[in-house]
Amino acid sequence: MALPGMKRRTLLAAGISLLATPMILKETAAMAVSGDKTKMDATPQPQFNQFKLGSYKFTVFKDGATIAEKPYETFGTNQTPETVQELLARNFLPTDKFVNTYAPTLIDTGSDVILVDTGFGEGGRARGSGLLRDGLKAAGYSPDDITLVALTHLHGDHIGGLMEGGAPAFKNARYVIGQIEYDFWTDKAREGTAAEGGHKTVLANVVPLAEKATFIGDGGTVASGITAMLAPGHTQGHMVFHIESEGKRLVATGDTANHYILSLQKPDWEVRFDMDKAQAAATRRKVFGMIAADKIAFLGYHMPFPAVGFVEAHDDGYRFVPKTYQFDL
């Protein structure tokens, strides 16, 4: 109902102004004024999202995002480019580019402050990633608050933040690492292979922390209420973490699926980054089949930020249902 004395055009203009206010404020905060010219500050700003699962408080950070070309060269590599592009178009996505985001997550249990994966760290900041440290500060945490770091696997975008300036980034933390994963990446047999770069990164970022680490396998305990499950294929020792508090459940799926459309709707499609492509596909079906059947939430490291959602069975794969207010009521 229009207010007395207000014409429709005036009311409409006022409505547009009110709706636009949050965006205007956000943009204004990012602007730098030089003379009579206004320029946008392109410096990445820390982003985080918080929610409760039972008594556990989750904070998901956006460590950064990258835009890559030719998605069909990464996803669906056993399909024709046209088949991959058709699926993207059907889901209202560009067919020539895709966005990859990274989501390290803090779990505050009340007795532990647990970081699951660490992002790129200082090595990513030149290209707009490595934002976890800024995110921690914005969310009211310090690196020194973290008591445990749990790693789903040892790829660079998950372990890059472990060291800072040649020293441990989380000086008060213990570490939980998969034994199979650690043994694979530290093995000298990786030298001279396609895995040599990852081998060197693990030697630099993970091996110095081994004395403070607990090495676990399938079914191992990460912390109270958090259990690991071996989910291989992406890497040999890739793990997912089952998290439960007060009867509420969530699975941190790491890189089991790397795209919310191309990996979930088509779980059998091969992914360039998966070391054992057939095993990775079988793992996707096992993990997301369980998540869909049990109707529980999952947190996927490369899902659209804030990287949390649900899946339901759909055609020959799964449909991603992103988090909205499920944890707020």
From TrEMBL:
It comes from the Bacteria. Keywords: Hydrolase, Metal-binding, Zinc. The keyword Zinc applies. InterPro entries: MBL_superfamily_lactonases (IPR051013), Metallo-B-lactamas (IPR001279), RibonucZ/Hydroxyglut_hydro (IPR036866). Residues 101-302 form the Metallo-beta-lactamase domain. One of its GO terms (molecular function) is hydrolase activity. CDD domains: OPHC2-like_MBL-fold (cd07720). It holds the Pfam family Lactamase_B. Belongs to the metallo-beta-lactamase superfamily. This is MBL fold metallo-hydrolase.
